[in-house]
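Can't attach files on this board, so I'm pasting raw text. These are the components:
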Amino acid sequence: MATRKTLEAPAPKRPNVSKDELLQYYRDMLLIRRFEEKAGQLYGMGLIGGFCHLYIGQEAVVVGLEAAAKEGDKRITSYRDHGHMLACGMDPKGVMAELTGREGGLSKGKGGSMHMFSKEKHFYGGHGIVGAQVPLGAGLAFADRYFGNDNVTFTYFGDGAANQGQVYETFNMAALWKLPVVFVIENNQYAMGTSQKRSTSTPDIYTRGGAFGIPGEIVDGMDVLAVKAASEKAVAHCRAGDGPYILEVKTYRYRGHSMSDPAKYRSREEVQKMRDERDAIENVRELLLSGGHATDDDLKSIDREIKAVVNEAAEFAKTSPEPGVDELWTDITA
Amino acid sequence: MATEVLMPALSPTMEEGTLAKWLVKEGDEVTSGQIIAEIETDKATMEFEAVDEGTVGKLLVAEGASGVKVNTPIMVLVEEGESADDLPAPKADPAPEAPSETPAQAPASAPAQAAAPLEVTSKASADWPEGTEMKTMSVREALREAMAEEMRTDETVFLMGEEVGEYQGAYKVSQGLLDEFGAKRVLDTPITEHGFTGIGVGAAFGGLRPIVEFMTFNFAMQAIDQIINSAAKTLYMSGGQMGCPIVFRGANGAAARVGAQHSQDYAAWYAQIPGMRVVMPYSAADAKGLLKTAIRDPNPVIFLENEILYGRSFEVPVLDDFTIPFGKARIWREGTDLTLVSFGIGMAHTLAAADKLAEEGISAEVIDLRTLRPLDYDTVLASVMKTNRCVTVEEGWPVASIGNHLSAVIMERAFDYLDAPVINCTGKDVPMPYAANLEKLALITSDEVVAAAKRVCYR
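---
Top answer:
Structure tokens for the assembled complex are below.
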């Protein structure tokens, strides 16, 4: 059913990819990383409160998945959601201002880091309850099937959420009703502080889909081109009306579970090794340079552009006023 | 330009910390993402990463320093050819402004506003014009008609749940709907409440208007996270972008001899949730008119039915498009000596009690709340200000009941009108027993309502 790839031995064959595509992935991933670094900094300054879960290290997952999306496709994810919002084109200013709880935030400051939405970009959250987004994502796909269009819903969840019962209730119904949903398991190997080995009976989580007749495969989540290729395959399966597809994307988060996680459950060397050897952004950077698609100066100028975008977002997030006190009582019922 | 690196807050509650260890020294090159220090917070020792690139110009706080306030400059990063002295006068980013002290005003309808009103006008009024043709119909038929009518006019409305289709409904409420609307719109689900409720909520986010039937609301406890966290809160959390038009309906409360796990009344539970509509009809006309309103409402609606009432018949108006708005109580009988307030099956006991009281010369005004959120406070208050006495009646448990809430609102807003304390008649504070005699004792009875009514009338 599945083609096996592992993290240690990424597929050597590169899909045919254009210079423009490579540059786009570089930009998109770099935007997420710089944005998240800035968010971490603003958190440190007390400008962002509560929980703040950074996506640093996992950028290739969402950028690769989005590369296969078309207008109308939907996406939904957990609380580690900043990267998903940037990748589907939501305004970095609005995301950052939501993190600081300001009027200019995407939820007018009432949602926070874990709860943001965009009807325009078909981004359905941002959900704080581990695993709850999985049946919701299948429901979005259900609506598209009901309307008879060929849209697909990308439903992201982590290796931790993969042990929630509602995931398997959803697998059952998604397979039964042939719902056009790509289940993306972002396996970053740690459910907060509990490693996959200590929490999960199956070494490869996607194999659990087999019990429901859902095909799936492992994808190298540190290689944006591998993610894109897998995404195209999964999306084609869903659009053809063949039901759901599972992509278990093996990835790694460099930072703690949230800003207040000291991450003592793994060694500094383990993190550093991933950064040094498998970093997804460095990977594309090398492809661009070695393929002669860009010079060091070209990339530096992209870096500067991204930094400017992120700084502008941070400035907006600091200066946008807090929501008016009347907002306490709005948007409770429609 | 030289950049100051500030002491970071590394937990939601951290105000100061200890700079346990520097991992860089002056003159070192620093790249973004590099760990530069270890900082002890109130909870743990955290690694602190650089965001900006540059050369360490100066370490401003010594290793081991404790009590370093968040946002204190701890290091200066310089670019090539700069020195730390190039830094302009220290200036930390301003902390966010303290939240405004202005107390937010609750909307006028919310019960929290305690000022005693001088005038309250009852909202209760006739639900259909006088002289309207009526027909006798069971609650079950009324619910079915409401769904069928709404499904005929709006293609996005569909019904999902256990045994709603081919089985024709566990309680036959959906009988015939599969034949008329087909399997696409009358969807049999597996027994998997948590999952299918989430799928229903997702479908509502995606532009449909699902009616999710729970065989009974007892089973909805498996799905209550999706009902509350996903359906009820998303409009608020999305700043008004993402509404959830969905109806959760099914049998609620005790049936007969089904024991503790199948006999709970959830009225007070759901009525507590902002973002939710909660409806609990008694009559067939209310069941029909309110379910049609529920299906059209852009918000999540909890629609609490009752197995015993399904088979009871009432007069229902014959009208092309008959709806009843939320937040409007119904006065079933007018009276002068006391006010009886109830809803759902509690109304059966309450109306029976009112008959008995009348025989003893006590004139009870009987109010059916019909919707618990929004709740028609004004009709209750206007009545209590007239009768000066009140008894509430419900099947659910006594602690944090709807009656408790009404008592508090009456005390806050009509204290001076009360001639006796409000009494809450409720189910007993026990899990529902199976034995017939014990079950009878656990449930509210009309005799208990009569006794409470006499107590508030000092008779």
